[in-house]
Amino acid sequence: MKIKVAFTILFPLLILFLAWPTQLALTITDGKSGQQRFAVPMELEDSFGIEFVHSIHKTPVIEEYYIDEQLDIVLDQVIYESYGVGMPSTIEPGQTYKQENGKYIISNIQRRLKFIDLAIGQMVANHQLKIHNRKVPFSQINPPGSWVRIQVKNVSLLTIWKGEWEYGK
User: Fold this and answer.
1) What is the SS3 assignment for 46?
2) 94: Cβ contacts below 8 Å, ≥ 6 apart
3) What pLDDT sits at residue 14?
4) Contacts 24+ apart (CB under 8 A), 32-38
5) At residue 113, does pLDDT exceed 90?
6) Which of 124, 62, 57 is nearest to 86 (CA)?
7) CA–CA separation, 65 and 20 (whole Å)
8) Which residues of 58-77 are buried (b: 16+ CB within 10 A; e: fewer)?
C-alpha cells in the first residue's frame, strides 16, 4: 500500500521535473510553423559557430558566437577569405582585424542578438552548425530553402533528450 501511495505521489513529480523548462539550450525552430526542430544544452559563455559557403564568392565564411549573461547570442568573430558583396571591409571601434593564413579575421564584434533568423541555402551555402566539437548540417534540421530561428532559451530535459536522440551526441 505504501509503495502505491509513494508511486502515485512521486511519479507525477518526476514527470513534472522532466517536463519543466530548466535546461539552458540553443534551440532551432522552423520559421514558418514555429515547431522546435533541434535543441542542444548550453551554458553561459558557451560558443558555437555557423559555417557556410558565400553564394557569390564561393569561399567559406565562419561566424562565431557565444551566449552572454542576458541569454543573448553575441556575434564575436567573423572569418572569411574574400572581400566583396556582403562581407565586412572596415572595422568599428573596439573591433580587431588581422590577416592570417590567407583569411581575414574580424574579432571582438560584440553584436548582441536575441535570435538569428537564417534561410537555409538550397544550392551553394551548405550551412552548418558547429557546436560542442561537432558539425550539424542545417539541411538535416530543416529542409533547404526554409528558414529557421536560432535562439537560447530554457527547455525541459525531455526536449534535450529528444534532441540528442534524434541528432546524436
Assistant:
1) coil
2) 108, 110
3) 57
4) 32/146, 32/147, 36/155, 36/159, 37/141, 37/142, 37/148, 38/129, 38/136, 38/141, 38/163, 38/166, 38/167
5) yes
6) 57
7) 27
8) eeebbbbbbbeeeebbbbbb
Residue type, 158: L
Separation of alpha carbons 85 and 83, rounded Å:
7
User: What mean pLDDT comes out for the span 13-38?
Assistant: 79
Q: Which three cell numbers stand for residue 124?
A: 551553394
Residue 52 and residue 121 in contact, taking contact as beta carbons nearer than 8 Å: yes
| Coil vs helix vs strand at 82 | coil
> Cα 161 from chain centroid?
17
Q: Is the pLDDT of residue 47 over 70?
A: yes
Alpha-carbon distance of 159 to 81, in angstroms, equals 38
Grid cell for residue 75: 556575434
Q: Which amino acid is at 156?
A: S
